[in-house]
Amino acid sequence: MAKMTMIEAIQSAHDTAMDRDEKVVVYGEDVGFFGGVFRCTAGLQEKYGPTRCFDAPINESGIIGTAIGMAAYGLRPCVEIQFSDYVYPAYDQIVSEAARLRHRCAGDFTCPLVIRMPVGGGIFGGQTHSQSPEAVFTHVCGIKTVMPSNPYDAKGLLAAAINDPDPVIFMEPKRLYNGPFDGHHENPVVPWRDHELGEVPEDYYTLPLGKAEVRRSGEAVTVIAYGTMVYVAEAAVAETGIDAEIIDLRTLLPLDLDTIVESVSKTGRCVIVHEATRTSGYGGELATLVQEECFYHLEAPITRVTGWDTPYPHAQEWDYFPSPERVGRALKKVMEA
Amino acid sequence: MSEYPPLTFNVPAPELRPGDTPDFSGVEIPRAGAVRRPRVDVDPKEIRDLAFTIIRVMSRDGEALGEWAPELTDEDCLEGLRHMMRLRAFDARMLMAQRQGKTSFYMQHLGEEAIACAFQRALQKGDMNFPTYRQAGLLIAQGYPLRTMMCQIYSNAEDPNHGRQLPIMYSSKEHGFFSISGNLATQYPQAVGWAMASAISNDSKIAAGWVGDGSTAESDFHAAIVFASTYKPPVILNIVNNQWAISTFQGIAKGESGTFAARGHGFGIPALRVDGNDYLAVYAVAKWAAERARRNLGPTLVEYVTYRAGGHSTSDDPSAYRPKEEGDAWPLGDPLLRMKGYLIRRGIWSEERHTQAEAEIADEILSAQKEAEEIGTLSSGSGPSARDMFEDVFEEMPPHLIKQRQEAGY
Ligand SMILES: Cc1ncc(C[n+]2csc(CCOP(=O)(O)OP(=O)(O)O)c2C)c(N)n1
Ligand SMILES: [Mg+2]
Fold first, then answer.
1. Is this model's pTM higher than 0.90 or not?
2. Cβ-contact B176, B126 below 8 angstroms
3. ω into residue A254 within 30 of 0, thus cis?
4. Minimal CA–CA distance to A271: which of A330, A317, A216, A198?
């Protein structure tokens, strides 16, 4: 075991995966010599050489398009999109190609490909460095979408994603890279070394995709969250004293519906929290599923706490970011209903 | 008040529209054999002129002329002709089948048969094409079963794609034929990526990307040549310039100056322009580009100059946007008739043998069609099961899909 930040854990996932399988190839903008703008691929080029970890031209459609060709050849590309805000030029390659390849030719060609990207706000990144576009991927059949919330999960889930036979979108909440951020931006960041989930095995391991984790057991209400919002929810629970059960989804698709249903059937209440904009967001899907599966257990309307339906602002970041106060208010409202 | 005259907006338009009389006398076509053949390791900047000319081998009189004339045996040449004849006859049958309601859609190759048929001859087992919907010649030239192609077109129970794709969107890894996408140009960077993978793996296989003139305007075309110029992987980047993209003439994708081949120049990629209706020239150029790729000299961009003699697809009526006579007036002629003339002049073919071969091929296609139709067409017989559409979304079916399949009643 070692203490790792989420960045170091992601780097270690690459390292151990590349070490055991020479088919794993890593590239993206600034990913090679420099090791990535967030340092998630640091040292890989030096260790594995420039044919297995290299810099790519600034062309996201080209990065994903070439990676699909590599995957079809039989390699296991794991590529980085510098910020999720820049994945849109590659959307056609992801949706029409990576996601569809296995199905359209009945498995003649397949696409084992991982597309990593930092997501989310809290870093004063403005509208082009802060978005959470998970719903534009969960809506696409044929790709998996993963979002870890801590170093231990990040390493195990990334290793599993690299091993997966199908394309995986791997979203890294960038505000969590260095510590578990709970929305209290006025406080100093707690570093991962002081958190139990900063304990990460140095060796290779995987965690199953499609399995959620209950971060806090509780009886009163279920909070469904993922990424940075797991810690915001924890703060809200601590501050309101409401005995909530907090589920960290970890994988958005395929979804661990059983864990959600079990929890909401017990608590009868549900609050869904995500950073992304609300309308047609993933929370809408979650709310529908909870309604379909747990209607007769529900004692209050399902509530969503999300980013507002505006572009992610710069100066007004903390008015936009779903705060522990907002989550706390939602918890109280649901408890009073 | 501006001191300049008002700006005007430029929208290129073809010279000819329905009702006009085609006249290609102004189009400069080099004589067969006139263009030099450089060494494969030539510095790209020494052959910039080759992107503006047309490499041709077969003369009007059926002679193979010049440095590009390839060494092909009699048997190779006869086989090449048969491939083109088979493709043309196959197209004719399938067009008819579509009109008879046996399938929803078809796209033919009329006038472009030489390109894929001759190109495939330059590839080896294990190489990979990333084709568009107009390269079935790549399959035919490898003896891919016509019956299987028809099963795909009919979306019947033996369609290798399980009825999931539009007709003619074939896939055969075994035949180096990547699954066709309906989204234009996406396959171009994929071809480059496949070639990068081959180089990364220190393999010996090469890739070929295919794109139409109209589709070169897609961002993915440019993405592909950026990556190809950066990593110099073993890939041949083919552009089939058949002058038309549905109803849009090639000047809308390219503008009114330069050539498609010349797009390689800014990227330091050697570019050749070749007579796409000349089987021998296509083969010679493909061989040259493949040789470069195999010797680790990197990508080559090739523009095949041809003419889409038929409609874009069964949903298209070209008489609405171009003169009916344009195809006949097209100065590069019919690839099949030119090859036939060449073989007769070479002394290994005759009108009688040609007629006999036509009859044989017609029989072969008819019997394949019978077999395919016994299995089913889109409108009759056995098709793929509805339960099957839930398969292959992922390797392992996730719970939500299992549930939806049950909900659908399977
Ligand atoms: C991304 C995308 N845009 C538009 C279309 C519709 N479309 C299908 S074929 C075609 C014309 C393509 O012309 P060209 O590239 O010259 O190829 P050709 O059909 O002449 O072989 C168009 C516009 C499509 N299939 N995909
Ligand atoms: Mg065209």
1. yes
2. yes
3. yes
4. A330
The answer to whether the complex's ipTM is over 0.85 is yes
A-B interface: how many C-beta pairs under 8 angstroms?
151
Is B170 annotated in the active site? no
Mutate to test the interface with B, among A70, A115, A289 (most CBs of B within 10 A): A70
Alpha-carbon gap, residue A12 to A203, rounded angstroms: 8
Asked whether the predicted pLDDT for residue B104 surpasses 90, the reply is yes
Nearest CA to ligand 1 atom 8: B184
Q: Which residue of A has its CA nearest to B164?
A: A104
Q: Starting from the CA of residue B243, give the closest ligand.
A: 2
Query: How far B381 CA lies from chain A's nearest CA (Å)?
Result: 21
Q: From the candidates A14, A103, A129, A274, which is the catalytic residue?
A: A129
Helix B113-120 and helix B335-346, axial crossing angle in degrees, nearest 10: 60
Share of chain A above pLDDT 90, in %: 99
Is B283 an active-site residue?
Answer: no
Among the atoms of ligand 1, which is closest to the Cα of residue B246? 11
Q: Looking at chain A, which residue has its C-alpha nearest residue B192? A: A66
Copy the structure tokens of residue A302: 């399902």
Task: Kindly report the nearest CA distance between residue B118 and chain A, in angstroms.
Answer: 24
| Amino acid letter, B232 | K
Q: What's the pLDDT tens digit per position in B316-368?
A: 999 999 999 999 999 999 999 999 999 999 999 999 999 999 999 999 999 99
Question: Do the beta carbons of residue A134 and residue A320 sit within 8 Å?
Answer: no
- The pLDDT, as a whole number, for residue B27 is 84
Q: Give CA separation, B94 vs B108, B133, B245, B314, in Å.
A: 9, 14, 21, 10
Query: Strands (DSSP E) along A120-258, which ranges?
Result: 144-146, 168-173, 199-200, 213-216, 221-225, 244-248, 251-253
* A13-34 per-residue burial string, b: 16 or more CB within 10 A, e: under 16: bbbbbbeeeebbbbbbbbbbee
Work out the minimum CA distance from A67 to partner chain B, whole angstroms: 6
